Amino acid sequence: MEATGVLAVGESATALAYIKARRGLSPRQVKVILLVCMSAIGIPVGAWASGSWSAAAMSVEFAIVGLGVGLLAVQRLAGPSLRKALAERGQAYEQSLTLRLTPEGLVYDLTDLTMTVRWPCVTDLYQTRKHWVFLVQSSAMVLPRRFFATPEAERDFIVEARSRMTDAARARSPDATRFVGG
Hints:
- The protein has helices at residues 11-22, 27-50, 53-88, 151-164, 167-171, 174-180, and strands spanning 2-8, 94-101, 105-110, 113-118, 122-127, 131-136, 139-144.
- With 182 residues, it is of the alpha+beta class.
- The chain has a four-stranded antiparallel β-sheet with strand order 1-2-3-4. Strands 5-6-7 form a three-stranded antiparallel β-sheet.
- Helix 2 (27-50) packs across helix 3 and helix 4 (151-164) crosses helix 6.
């Protein structure tokens, strides 16, 4: 059984950010914590230094707006610069990916790179909004959910993958269990 489609550069990193959140903080939580800390520390320290609460609050508000504009600019510029850097190296921004389930393990075939992993090495299977992520010891294999033509095809694939995983891996994969209804 296999799933095939096109994977964009950076897509795996995006999927993994949400997986890291399950073991810590999501990207959104990190941003909220930074903004709260900027306000909770910046305003009292600014008020102490300047003697004015309103001046301190305005300074922190402007810093938060500046941070937001900076993050937006970085996000807008990163894509084109990454595409340009890849093109200069003769690499494509998008690559064909096939993830195959075999009796021996997972085969991750990404254009010029093929990885084969035995089933005992698969430790977890997570679902994000847009991806399935197979954790393989300390690495990950990302499978976009859009690769499946129908929800039934996706379910059949996950049922097959779960059936080949070890008991311990299935126990650490509640998303897959919920998804297949068992």
